[in-house]
Amino acid sequence: MTSTQEHPDMLLPWYVNQTLSAEELEQVEQHLETCERCRTEVATLKHIRDEYKQQFATQSPGRFGLARLKADIKRDRQEQEKETLPRPSFLWWRPVMVAAVLVIVIQSTLLVKMERPEGTITPLSGKPAAEVVLQVRFNPQAIESEIRKVLLEVDGEIVSGPGALGIYRITLKNVDADQQDAILRAVSMLKENKNVVEFVSSQ
Amino acid sequence: MTLDSDHELLELIAHGNEPALEKFYHKYESRVYHFALSRLHDPHAAAGILNEVMMEVWRSASRFEGKSRVGTWLLGITHHKIIDYFRKHHRHQAEELQDEPDEQSNSIDECIIATQQSKWIRHCMDRLSDDHRQVAHLAFFEELPYNEIAAILDCPQGTVKTRMFHAKRNLVRCLAAHGVEPEFG
User: Fold this and answer.
1) Residue B113 sits at the chain A interface (C-beta within 8 Å)
2) Strand, helix or coil at B85?
């Protein structure tokens, strides 16, 4: 401390509260012997200190403050325990979660199937042409060239046969099922060739 | 209670010993509370600061390095809590209150009991700026040496002396203005 460079009255508050070092105390006491103003100041500071301490000795929170502190400590501990405790094991609900996922998958599959429209799916290019199939039995005496000629006339094509009764299934190319006139005309033409076609009917 | 027992208390507190904290609280709560009250003028806020300081002790007693006295360390924590309070509540630390007696803080009974001079002493202490009042409180109420006050307030010792000098001068002026005539100043 550079007490020699400052006026001793800077130290008077600490002279009053008796916390000066021995060296400082000696310096102040020597000064007080000759300084009336500083002696008065010391008396006034002591009076102010005593009055202030007396007035300030008000009730502190005491046991109420302690109760508040304990409550906060308890809360603090609980929060710390929450942070340090391992989270609840996930093992118990893992099978439940797997089962739930399976249920969702199965339900989704069923829903997709249920929502599928009945009947054929119509392509974007348009409704497919309904095939016209005729059942024909040829005369056993007819030769291949005669049969070929008749088929060419109606634009027909053997798709299956002969069956057990000698019946062939013939489709009419370029004729749709809703073209009844074309179908009747083809049937009529086939029937007119009796030496080649014994029997004809539409499915 | 000796210095060693203070250290022992802090060591126990650092290990989560609640009865040790209770003892510590009983020993220091008045000092912490009154230091806060001297600066905040609000018993509720001062009680809040006391609680925060003791919680800080509870959480970080192990950080006490023993470089200063426990009381100095504790009031240093209090000082910083008060600064935080001022920041949080947008209050200016150095504000000086209006030079009007705070009638609300003095009940009729208190006025009857207290002498007029004592009332003005408290009134004038309360009207000091925070910088001056904190030094005056630590010197008059805590009766601490200036080097410890400097440690608590984290400022040079010369600053403490200068603040005390101005506190003393303003105190005397305030008292003189209210008819209390100190013979120095």
Assistant:
1) no
2) helix
Per-residue DSSP letter, B31: H
Question: What per-residue confidence (pLDDT) applies to B94?
Answer: 47
Residues B39 and B137: beta-carbon distance below 8 Å: yes
pLDDT tier at A88, thresholds 50, 70, 90: low
* A40/chain B closest Cα distance in angstroms: 6
One-character DSSP codes across A31-54: HHHH-HHHHHHHHHHHHHHHHHHH
Rg of chain A taking only CA atoms, in angstroms: 59
pTM, 2 dp: 0.58
* Locus of tokens 């630390």: B93
A69 and B21: CB-CB below 8 Å? yes
CB nearest A14 (choices: B21, B139, B141): B139
Chain B residue numbers touching A7 (CB-CB < 8 A): none
Q: How far is C-alpha B49 from the chain's CA centre?
A: 11
Query: Which of B25, B38, B157 lies closest to A69 in CB terms?
Result: B25
* ipTM beyond cut 0.85: no
B13-69 residue pLDDT tens? 999 999 999 999 999 999 999 999 988 888 889 999 999 999 999 999 988 888 888
